[in-house]
Write a structure and sequence with these properties.
Number of strands: 9
Shape: globular
Order of helices and strands: HEEHEEHEEEEHEH
Helix content: 25-40%
Number of domains: 1
Structural class: alpha+beta
Largest sheet: 9 strands, antiparallel
Oligomer: single chain
Radius of gyration: 18 Å
Length: about 220
């Protein structure tokens, strides 16, 4: 089959066109960069979740990500003892090629094979409707994990990479803004119990969401 006739190729072309549109939408205009709180001030205790350690990102990885602010931490549920890893990458602008890297590309590159790729609605506080996030289950040998992730900016929570690019162009034209954030929650799967790991990830996402609203621009 000719690759140029596949749906993946058409999707790739669409993403490239949207990225080009976003660049030209702000390239010759002053961009508005809203204020944000440093992610280092993100609370170490969130409901029943307590931070156990920071997980610094290596400089080589930071150079690839090109994020303006990064948070990488491990939290543990004090009542159940279940760990969860929180990663947030904030980008003030996507004007010069900076953009979130999809976990769907990064995790397989680290040796994790995809087991499930779906979306999941989550009811959260201080939001008018359930947010829809990506649920990505991966395996490396006997090791499995559940990853919940989404893109957050301009009073939006977006699961789809393609819709994130669409709104990037729209907001660059209307508001002269291209800032965005990637939020990722990873929960290891114990005893091959994916539903329990998913439930823990959902609970953690619900607990941390109000703090996201105070740290990320709206």
């Amino acid at each position: 089959m000719n690759f140029t006739h596949t749906r993946q190729f058409r999707a790739l072309i669409l993403v490239l066109l949207l990225q080009a549109g976003a660049y030209y939408a702000v390239a010759f205009r002053d961009e508005r960069t809203p204020p944000s709180n440093p992610l280092s001030t993100f609370p170490p205790i969130i409901d029943s979740w307590r931070m156990t350690k920071d997980a610094p990102i290596e400089k080589e990885v930071q150079d690839i990500l090109k994020a303006d602010d990064i948070l990488s931490r491990e939290y543990v549920n004090t009542s159940r003892g279940m760990p969860a890893y929180l990663f947030i990458a904030y980008f003030k602008t996507q004007r010069y090629g900076q953009a979130p890297h999809s976990p769907k590309n990064c995790l397989p590159g680290a040796g994790f094979e995809p087991v499930e790729d779906s979306t999941l609605p989550i009811q959260v506080a201080d939001w008018p409707a359930p947010i829809v996030v990506n649920k990505f289950v991966t395996a490396r040998g006997y090791e499995k994990s559940v990853t919940l992730y989404w893109y957050q900016s301009h009073n939006r929570v977006i699961a789809s990479e393609y819709w994130a690019k669409f709104w990037l162009v729209a907001d660059a034209v209307r508001y002269r803004r291209s800032d965005t954030s990637l939020v990722k929650v990873v929960v290891p799967v114990a005893n091959n119990d994916i539903p329990s790991a998913t439930a823990a990830g959902v609970e953690f996402a619900q607990s941390l969401f109000p703090s996201l609203l105070t740290h990320l621009p709206r």
